[in-house]
Design goal:
This protein has 239 residues and is α+β, with helices and mostly antiparallel strands. 28% of the residues lie in helices and 29% in strands. The chain contains 6 helices and 14 strands. The strands form 3 sheets. Strands 3, 4, 5, 6, 7, 8, 12, 13 and 14 form a 9-stranded mixed beta sheet that branches.
Length: 239
């Protein structure tokens, strides 16, 4: 594989015998994140959905439930922005997020959510997950309204959402880059500078989520409302 920064091109040479299906998975998250970060862009370890022209980032470490929560919201009518890697850029008074992967990759325990997204195309990825392509996906940059950090709980019976203070929100943003362990310092410094600007203007929430599937009806709408976004059903009623 070769990265051509001048022409914004990635050339992949597949090894004989390698499953070609793994290439989109690698390019859509790790490789593209590396290329963007090497250009000084901020890429968070997050999925994102769009409601009413505004984006909600669902951020966290691996196995934190990011894709599952995004699928839950897409089943409720939200549009997918990206899965696993989210490019974010601070602007005066806020931030903009950018479309990325147009599919969700769900682990076997959450695969049934894909069937709840009307019109979605389902397939199996090369790494054994269920790939879900929702019919609605954002195709232009949009305002980042909030960042949500899910904490899945099998014991919780009610949703609990807490807005973090500016310092704690910054700590979470710093702690969740898509790529870590850089051997040079400047990407780390750049990540800190950009996340500091975002933490000043974009609210960050931590949510203890009663975990499924099955999930309680209306949970997606409750999560969106707690983060300051109307549910898709509310948007349609206003129209």
């Amino acid at each position: 594989m070769a990265l051509d920064s001048d022409q914004h091109r990635i050339v992949v040479h597949r090894c004989p015998g390698t499953d070609a299906g793994i290439i989109p998975t690698l390019l859509g998250s790790g490789v593209l994140s590396h290329a963007l970060t090497a250009e000084g862009r901020l890429v968070l370890h997050a999925a994102a959905v769009e409601v009413g022209g505004r984006g909600l980032a669902i951020m966290g470490a691996s196995c934190a439930g990011k894709s599952t929560v995004a699928a839950l919201m897409c089943a409720g009518g939200a549009a997918l922005v990206t899965d696993d890697a989210l490019r974010v850029h601070p602007i005066d008074g806020g931030a903009v997020c950018f479309p990325g992967n147009r599919t969700l990759r769900l682990r076997p325990t959450a695969a049934s959510l894909g069937e709840e997204i009307g019109g979605a195309e389902l397939s199996e990825s090369a790494d054994g997950r269920t790939t879900v392509a929702p019919p609605e996906a954002a195709d232009t940059p949009l305002e980042l309204a909030a960042v949500l950090i899910p904490s899945p709980s099998r014991e919780a019976t009610e949703l609990e959402v807490v807005r973090l203070g500016a310092r704690d929100g910054l700590v979470e943003l710093i702690s969740n880059p898509r790529l870590a362990a850089w051997q040079v310092s400047w990407p780390v410094v750049r990540h800190f500078d950009l996340t500091t600007r975002i933490a000043e203007s974009v609210p960050v929430f931590r949510a203890t989520v009663p975990w499924g599937p099955p999930f309680e009806p209306g949970l997606a709408g409750e999560l969106l409302a707690a983060a300051g976004l109307d549910s898709p059903a509310s948007e349609r009623s206003k129209a």
